[in-house]
Design brief:
Layout (H helix, E strand, L loop, with lengths): L15 H7 L1 E8 L6 E9 L2 E4 L5 H30 L7 H6 L2 H12 L3 E5 L6 H15 L4 E5 H7 L4 H13 L2 E5 L8 H16 L4 E5 L3 H7 L3 H14 E5 L1
Parallel strand pairs: 4-7, 4-8, 5-6, 6-7
Antiparallel strand pairs: 1-2, 2-3
Helix pairs in contact: 2-5, 4-5, 6-8, 7-8, 8-10, 9-10
The structure holds zinc ion (ZN).
The site of zinc ion has 8 residues, from helix 2.
């Protein structure tokens, strides 16, 4: 309530009932501080102090509110563009790669994330998987204000050798982020620790149905076969299949 006061100021009545008895309200005509036209607003007075509800007419208020909103959304899209630049390596933002990336695949990855689905982008290297995912999917998500964690498979492998508490702190955001992008999964030698960590990520994300975006040179069977034990490989790939739609490059 705009006219009620919970704590008394120096000139106010010390008890609430006194304030209420002294409160007077009416409607007054005021001239708008922006356009100068007369408009009707509410006036209240307590113990000789006066307030009016508004100093602008409805039309001027609406125009002002719209201008603020437009400025906010422009600022927001600038911030999101900057956030994407921080996330995405400059290589993938180069005009050359953007021009070379296949538009049909770009469209497929965009459609997948726009409908809330993850992506399992697989195919030989040099087919623009990573470029399409960065420019078609991740950029779109960031511009929509979604949080995306982006890592490479080799980074996860390196971190999987760390001590348990450090590793847990590293993995927590990868499991909790609304979107996770793992680039080049399955490259290099698999280790027991790396396999276990991938299972932990897949398990954690599956429990909340959080989509995953993956690029890899291996199809799902070949990826599963790379794990140190076939059971872990199958378990990871089965979970990833539920969180990511296959798109062949
Ligand atoms: Zn006005």
């Amino acid at each position: 309530m705009i006219f009620s006061r919970t704590s008394p100021g120096p000139n106010d009545a010390p008890v609430e009932t006194a304030v209420e008895e002294d409160l007077k309200r009416d409607q007054v005509e005021k001239s708008c501080i922006i356009c100068g036209h007369l408009f009707v607003t509410e006036r209240a007075s307590i113990m000789g102090r006066e307030w009016t509800l508004s100093d602008k007419c409805d039309a001027c208020f609406a125009t002002l509110a719209k201008a603020v909103e437009e400025k906010d959304s422009k600022l927001q899209s600038e911030l999101r563009a900057r956030r994407f630049e921080e996330l995405c390596p400059s290589l993938y933002r180069s005009p050359e790669l953007r021009a070379a990336a296949p538009l049909d695949k770009m469209k497929l990855v965009r459609e997948a994330v726009a409908s809330g689905k993850g992506i399992f982008a697989y195919g030989e290297s040099g087919m623009f998987k990573t470029t399409c995912v960065w420019l078609g999917a991740v950029q779109w998500l960031v511009h929509k204000g979604k949080r995306v964690e982006c890592v490479s498979g080799s980074e996860i492998r390196t971190r999987s050798a760390e001590a348990r508490n450090k590793l847990d702190a590293y993995l927590a955001p990868l499991i909790a982020a609304p979107w996770l992008f793992i680039d080049d999964l399955g490259q290099g030698a698999m280790t027991d620790a790396y396999s276990d960590v991938l299972l932990q990520i897949a398990e954690g994300r599956m429990s909340e149905s959080r989509p995953v975006i993956i690029t890899t040179q291996f199809d799902r069977e070949a990826l599963a076969a790379r794990f140190t034990t076939p059971e872990t490989g199958k378990a990871v790939v089965r979970r990833l299949s539920l969180l990511a739609n296959p798109i062949q490059f």
